[in-house]
């Protein structure tokens, strides 16, 4: 089952389509949601533990009341007066009329119960939050955050904008958030990262085809990765697995191209050629017994402007060209980037190549595939957004770029990495500080190139390469001393 990532509007549309077009009554969806939540809640609940369920005025509150019914154990519930409930919540309320295990508490009682509660279920607001939280709801949220209870939010932490991840004046900080049907974009960005400790996504019976038709982003998890990993045929030869040319390096940054090349080789490329400045040729010849080496004229430790001449004879020889690792922000980098595009083959722009193309973004529109792997700072060179604008809205940034450059696959690297192509997007949500060190990006570039050689599909290679890269980071218990080596399992 795919886990999807939606904006608030997409999530609402998916609900609406399921209810009105697929004729699945909303109460059935709510029952699925509540049954699934109850199972998860029970796993975290101590026998005899005191549980307090906070319900708001909409269907999120309806989920809370359904959970109270399904728990089948004594619990306290705070709920608004029946006249201000949504229709479905009202039906849930009626179902509790004869229930003797559910005790409704007043606002004041709820505040005092909070002090001894073992668990608080946050069903105040979900996808329908529309303005700042004030008054009693704010007081309740502040009290939850001050309590020692284990807090589970239903669907969305109440107070969090589901799309932007901004807090609307007050917000529940949860130990666990059970996302209904899909993860919301706001849970992965901005304040969303701080208020949701752990996300668990629950299927509630909304048909997967609805998400597919809405073109929602897909979580890149192990299930998805298995589908993407290229299969190597036993009767393949080195040509089958691709010929890569990696252009990069400088006197002070020869490690970057070395790491990228090693990662490419270890990721299964058929043959690998590195093109580096003359001044580091001999160093690399010592380090890279696995790659063929070509070198071009250097100046002050970088490629010279005339180094490009060597590339003129290379047209048609390679399946993938990578450019950028350790090249520096030099005039020659700009020249080489343009020349690399003339090789008319799939080209991966990493690091300084993303900087070098910024004056000629029109060159990114080619009739062959281009992969770009910028981190957030490098992304500022590729779009008209500032660093903070990209951080605020990484999903929109990737969508906008991919719509403008349909032949490009963009890998926007940060604690969550987004991989976009046309209207498709994968989201890798495995933040790990092990990858926050020099060389990580170079290795990712190499892994993607190695995998491209084996599948010849830029979006697939970028997605599976990004996933494998993050798996490498999980190998060590202490992320600070992690040494990166590509793996294949
Ligand atoms: N539909 C489905 O298929 C399923 C939906 N499910 C569940 O429904 C949830 C979405 O339900 P929902 O649309 O009723 O929104 P929800 O957030 O509960 O409340 C909206 C209410 O709050 C009010 N309100 C808003 N902001 C406020 C504020 N700051 N302070 C005070 N009031 C405020 C708002 O008032 P209004 O803006 O209309 O004036 C309205 O009355 C979703 O997250 C999931 O949990 C599941 O059961 C599975 C099936
Ligand atoms: K909630």
UniProtKB/TrEMBL annotation:
Superkingdom of origin organism: Bacteria
Cofactor: K(+); Mg(2+)
Residues of the YjeF C-terminal domain: 221-489
Catalytic activity: (6S)-NADHX + ADP = AMP + phosphate + NADH + H(+); (6R)-NADPHX = (6S)-NADPHX; (6R)-NADHX = (6S)-NADHX; (6S)-NADPHX + ADP = AMP + phosphate + NADPH + H(+)
Binding residues for (6S)-NADPHX: 59-63, 126-132, 137, 155, 256, 326, 375, 442
Keyword NAD recorded: yes
GO molecular function, one term: ATP binding
NCBIfam families tied to this protein: yjeF_cterm (TIGR00196), yjeF_nterm (TIGR00197)
Name under which the protein is recorded: Bifunctional NAD(P)H-hydrate repair enzyme
Gene coding for it: nnr
